[in-house]
Every structure is written in structure tokens, then in C-alpha cells.
Batch of 2 targets.
Target 1
Amino acid sequence: MLDPGLFHKALLKRDIDFFAGVPDSLLKNFCAYIDDQGTPGKHIITANEGNAVALATGYHLATGKTGAVYMQNSGLGNCINPLTSLTDQDVYNIPLLLIIGWRGEPGIKDEPQHIKQGRITTAQLDLLEIPYQILDAQSNLEEALNNLMTAENMCKGPVALLIRKKTFSEYKRSKKCLYDYTLKREEALRSILSQAGTDDLIVSTTGKTSRELFELRKERFEKQCDFLTVGSMGHASSIALGVAMGRPHRNVLCIDGDGAFIMHMGSLPIIGSLKPENFVHILLNNSAHESVGGQETVAGTIDISKIVKACGYKKYFQAGSSSEVEECWKEIKKIKGPVFLEIKVCVGSREDLGRPDSTPVQNKKSFMEFCSVC
């Protein structure tokens, strides 16, 4: 397997010392390494992948150096615009190294939301006219980088390394969590389900939140009727807004995560401006990209209450325990939305946490049936 430190040194040797992106499970050991060992101020975990492309562009404009942007292959969708209208050789011709985790690679078992993206990733890079090399545990790193970063390729703008599963060897982060939240996310979800009405419609975000919600419904012997947003990170709140507009007589709960919340924060003023009275936005904030390695988000350093109030939400609440969730909910039930509840939760989940055993299409049908009940 490829040592993350050796990979980092190989990039530094080529004068690539600036790293930006959104963490990915296939790249978590490399991301952890540069977070620990990289030059301070030259590793930035961005809100989304398009932001990272823009950051690397700015760094190149200021220094003449090539920046590295890392992402899961699903993140290509977030950066197609800057890749075609900013860094492309027909526009500003910005050299850039994309480091892409190849989820859903054909022939490799993966979750449903990764299958299509994995199948079309190489075709996307071809369509974008981005030269790429595939890197795995057996690859000759120097040869791959030399083949990719030729003068001819770099003159064309961005180039890409497509990283296969189990390419990097393990690296344990030395940085410890900065926050001492004690409430477990699963307990917070259990509290939410205990307080929610039997007719409330729930849309949950991607990652472990939806997996835990699915298992809690089983624990409670309840029908699977929630919309589990297994992909499309950052869009759960907009999905929930659409549901709220389509079923204005039903309460709609959006259960969000801090990484997803930050990724597409532009949905907040839209929600606030439309003023859906039946909308409750719940943020489970552990200030980490937990599902892909535990790298920190900036959610622990910003004042979310001021942000949501400025965007037009009627009221903001915060809880850090199950009892506080219950107390907040008593007030939430009295208020017309949109309402925001931030719940501080700790990083971590059960080791035996499963995945939904229903397909996304089955989940959709169950949710739509529940929507149409009344």
C-alpha cells in the first residue's frame, strides 16, 4: 500500500504544497496526514469541491504554483462549473492537480449512490478533457506522477489522479477532537423521534445519520417512512423544503449534518424567504466529517444562531442533551416555522451500525405513500 507521507513528499518534490478539498473515505489517511504534517495554512477543508478549485486557482495566481484539490468522485459534480469556466485551457488555463477517490468503481462493491458515479467517472474526465492516471496500492507512484505531470499535460490546465480503494496505508491522526460534546448522535435521533408527531415527515441527510435513523425505526417497530438522502450531500434541506411546500398541512423535519449544512448553505436564505410555517430544520453538529475520517468542519467556530436568524428563520434553539431536546421541542411546537434546532453531538457511532436493507427506490415509494396518507 502507498504510504501517505511518501505521497505527500512526492508532491512537495514537484512544488505542490497547497491542498484544499472535501474529505473522502478513500483518501482519509492522506487527508489525516496532511492535516497533521502539512504546512500550517496550506491545507484547507472547504465547504464544497468547487470552492477548493477556486482556492487553488487563487493560490496559483498569487504564487505561480500548482495547487492540489482532493475530493470523492461525487464531488466532480460540484466543480464542473469552475473546471470548465475557470481553470480550463480555453479560459484561464490554470494548472491543477485533482486527487479523486474512486467510489463505485465498476466491479467493486459499493453503496447504491456511488454506482452510477463510479461507472461514469473516467468518461467524465475524458469529456472534461482532463488527463488522468489511475493510482492503486501496486502503482509506481513516481512513474504515475511523471506520466501525468508532463509539460504538455500541465499546459492544458487540470490533471487528475484517480485513487482506487485501499490505495493508502493507515495513518492515525494525532490531532484530538477540540469539542467535548457528550450527547451521542443516535441518542439525539432517538429523542427527536420521541418528540415528533406520528404524521411528521422526516428528511435526513447523507452519512451515518440516515443509517442510524433507519435502525431506530426498526428498534421502535415502526414502518420505514422517512426519506433517507443517501447521496447528494448538502441538499437535504432543499429536498425538505420542497416537501414542506407540497404538503403544507404536515410538519416537515429536516435532519441535517454540519458538513452538509455548510456545503450548500445558500439554501438557508431561500428557506427563510419562503417562510414555510411547517418547517423544522434540525442540525446534528459534531463539527466533523465523521463518515469519511473525522476531519474537522468549521461548524464549531461559527455562530449558527446568527446565520439562521439573518436568513429569516423565526426562532433558533440549541440543545446538548436529551432532556434539552425535549424542553426545546415543547417551545418548537408552539411556533410557526421555519424554526432551527442545533443539537451538539459527539463524534462516534456503534461499531455494528448497519446500512438500510431497502433500496433507494423502495425508500422513495414508502415516503411518498406516507406523504399521501392525509
Note: The chain has a mean pLDDT of 94.
Target 2
Amino acid sequence: MHDLPQRFEADSVGRALALVGERWTLLILREAFFGVRRFGELSRNLGIPKPTLSARLRTLVDAGLLDRVPHGDHHEYRLTDRGRDLFPAVVALMRWGDEHLGGPSIALRHHACGEVVRARVVCGHCTGEITTDSVTPEAVVGSTGGD
């Protein structure tokens, strides 16, 4: 077992989950990834109580994951670059759910090759697949754990 006590001081997973780990938040982000931008559409698609949706949208805007943009007589919620960077995490959750909780409900077709995506996490250096057996956690020298 790896002894990395600093992982609790600089816990990126914990900090990320504190922001996006609540069920409705991830579902709102999923909808945003697929082009849903209006409050009413989010409410209808998710069946989320409106006060809950308002609070979650405010949190996502305050965190810089969504922008609230005037659009005619209403507002739209658009992903920021920071928000779009969460797409691989949501795709990974979709893949896991597809494989372990009853199969896919939607497929993602890759524009470049036309095939249905089978997402995986790969090394940016060698493109080898990243699994629990192919990596070793190490302390980052000088890590402060903050933003």
C-alpha cells in the first residue's frame, strides 16, 4: 500500500467532488455537454425541482463552469472552458454505468472516425491505457493543495 499522507492535504478528488459530486450537478453538466442551455429545458429534461436547479446553476456559474448569458428575453447557461474540461470525467462515468449498471442508453459517435466511442484514459506521452495496475501514485513536490 502506498503511504501518501499528503494526498489528504492536496486532495484533488475531494475538492472536485465538493463542487460537482452532487447528483443533480453532474446531470446538469451532462445536459450542458449535449447542448441544453435553457433553464426550462434543464428542468424538463431532468425533472429537477426548480429551486434545486436554480441553486445548482448558481453554484456552477460561481465556480466558473457555466456562464449565464442573456439571450433574448431569457438567459442561457453555456459551458466555459473550465466546464468543458469535465467532459472526460462524465464520459468515464457513462462508460462505467454502461458496463456495470445495465447497458448504454445513448452512444457517442466520434466525428473524426465515425465510430461509436469506447472511451478510455490514456497516457499523454505514450498513449498507453491508464488503469489502476499501470500507474503509481507519487507525491508532487511543492504541492500546496490549493487552486
Note: Helices lie at 12-20, 23-33, 39-46, 50-62, 81-84, 87-100.
